[in-house]
């Protein structure tokens, strides 16, 4: 049978990276540009204060205008998505702002200006405005301390007073820069915490969806067994029904034909039938449960018997099953139910492969052994084996040669994934004497070591 095409969902194409937004004047405004474009008119409107404080003046207006324009133009040309551009524009705004402020103090009276006492505030305000860029604030601090000292010195004040003011501006700048760096650290720690929380949540969601996927595959395997399960339950139900009819006749008839021993035998048979139905349903329910996924040391013999109990429903009509697991085989570290699911997948596949051949001479064998430090489990059948084009694609997701009502193409792909989760390998090959062989290898289980 030729393999069906791989569904488009399995073919992943590289998606182009989203283009970085470009800085366009009046284009998309981020929070930083918006803030600056509000700041620019605010700076210009401060001319009103200048008029109140020192009266109208051309130079004060010109300085306010230059200051506002430097902020507005820099905001328009800044690329908020490029760190170097932001750093460059911030340095420009801080330098231009500081020089404009020094000029404003100069034209409004120098060391006697109403604005002179605001010198230490300029670097402090810049530290608050740009907490992520202490360098620009430091630059402004240096300019302002030199400006304050220069104006005092130029007005003939003692050098000590100049030095005092310069020192005060520098101190305020250092304190502001330190506060900004602490703020940055706290912000970084908060971001890292948020990222870590998001990463942990994503991993938890992934683990849940992994479990759901494995669970659906398990249910799909059980669905494939539905016909065999119905047949297996039908037999005891049929003779339970016949026994009940017999008992009803016996109870209602005037003369009892059956002896007490015969009646006891019929009850025993009926109870055995009910037990058998209960056992099948119990096995299926136990298998389909979603259990805790903590790997523990598992004896392969137990895992095999879990899978065989269910697989027998399917295999007994198509093949003879032989199991040979040496009792002294060391345990493997795995989730028992998951490993049983893997084995059940392989056994159901073997049953499907042998179906056309008929029960006569059909065989499935499960063989366990120790090879060096690896526990090896082989599941073999004497069916048609794997044609080359099937063998090369066996473990691809959604690859199946079965009809849609029978195959999902997930069994072997998921089985390999699960085996690898427990540090093992799953390989397929054709047997020399004909038929398929699936080979599972595990490191010897050691509860002190976790599987990858
Ligand atoms: P599915 O059983 O749903 O088709 P699997 O991933 O379990 O999906 O199997 C993929 C294909 O591998 C099957 O469709 C079948 O062609 C092939 N295959 C698996 N086991 C055997 C086997 N024992 N003998 C022959 N072919 C097999």
From TrEMBL:
Keywords: ATP-binding, Membrane, Nucleotide-binding, Phosphoprotein, Transmembrane, Transmembrane helix
Bilayer-spanning residue ranges: 58-78, 90-108, 137-156, 162-180
Entry EC no(s): 2.7.13.3
Reaction it catalyzes: ATP + protein L-histidine = ADP + protein N-phospho-L-histidine
Enzyme's top EC category: transferase
Family annotation (InterPro entries): HATPase_C_sf, HATPase_dom, His_kinase_dom, HisK_dim/P_dom, HisK_dim/P_sf, Sig_transdc_His_kin-like_C
Single GO MF annotation: ATP binding
PROSITE patterns linked to this entry: HIS_KIN (PS50109)
Location of the Histidine kinase domain: 228-446
Keyword Metal-binding: no
Record-given protein name: histidine kinase
Source species: Archangium lansingense
């Amino acid at each position: 049978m030729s393999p069906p095409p791989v569904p488009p969902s399995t073919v992943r194409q590289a998606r182009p990276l989203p283009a970085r937004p470009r800085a366009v004047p009046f284009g998309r405004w981020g929070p930083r540009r918006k803030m600056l474009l509000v700041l620019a008119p605010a700076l210009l409107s401060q001319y009103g204060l200048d008029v109140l404080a020192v009266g109208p003046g051309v130079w004060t207006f010109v300085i306010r205008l230059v200051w506002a324009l430097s902020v507005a133009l820099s905001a328009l040309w800044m690329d908020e998505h490029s760190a170097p551009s932001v750093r460059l524009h911030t340095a420009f705004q801080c330098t231009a702002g500081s020089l404009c402020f020094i000029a404003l103090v100069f034209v409004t009276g120098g060391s006697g200006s109403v604005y002179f006492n605001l010198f230490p505030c300029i670097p402090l305000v810049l530290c608050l405005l740009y907490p992520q860029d202490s360098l620009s604030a430091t630059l402004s601090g240096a300019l302002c301390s030199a400006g304050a000292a220069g104006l005092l010195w130029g007005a003939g004040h003692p050098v000590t007073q100049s030095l005092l003011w310069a020192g005060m501006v520098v101190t305020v700048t250092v304190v502001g820069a330190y506060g900004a760096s602490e703020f940055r650290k706290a912000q970084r720690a908060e971001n890292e915490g948020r990222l870590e929380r998001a990463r942990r949540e994503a991993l938890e969601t992934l683990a849940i969806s992994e479990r759901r996927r494995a669970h659906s595959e398990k249910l799909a395997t059980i669905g494939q067994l539905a016909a065999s399960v119905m047949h297996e339950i039908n037999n005891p139900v049929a003779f339970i029904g016949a026994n009940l009819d017999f008992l009803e006749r016996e109870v209602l008839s005037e003369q009892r034909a059956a002896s007490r021993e015969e009646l006891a035998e019929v009850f025993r048979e009926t109870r055995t039938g009910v037990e058998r139905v209960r056992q099948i349903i119990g096995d299926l329910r136990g298998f389909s449960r979603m259990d805790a996924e903590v790997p523990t040391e598992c004896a392969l013999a137990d895992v095999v018997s879990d899978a065989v109990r269910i697989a027998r429903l399917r295999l007994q009509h198509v093949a003879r099953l032989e199991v040979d697991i040496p009792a002294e085989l060391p345990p493997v570290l795995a989730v028992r139910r998951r490993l049983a699911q893997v084995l059940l997948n392989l056994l159901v596949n073997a049953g499907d492969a042998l179906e056309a051949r008929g029960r006569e001479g059909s065989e499935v064998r499960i063989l366990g052994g120790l090879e060096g430090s690896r526990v090896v489990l082989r599941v073999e059948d004497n069916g048609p084996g794997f044609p080359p084009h099937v063998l090369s694609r066996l473990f691809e997701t959604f690859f199946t040669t079965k009809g849609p009502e029978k195959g999902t193409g997930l069994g072997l792909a998921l089985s390999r994934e699960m085996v690898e989760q427990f540090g093992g390998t799953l390989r397929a090959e054709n047997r020399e004497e004909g038929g398929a062989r699936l080979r599972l290898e595990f490191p010897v289980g050691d509860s002190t070591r976790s599987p990858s």
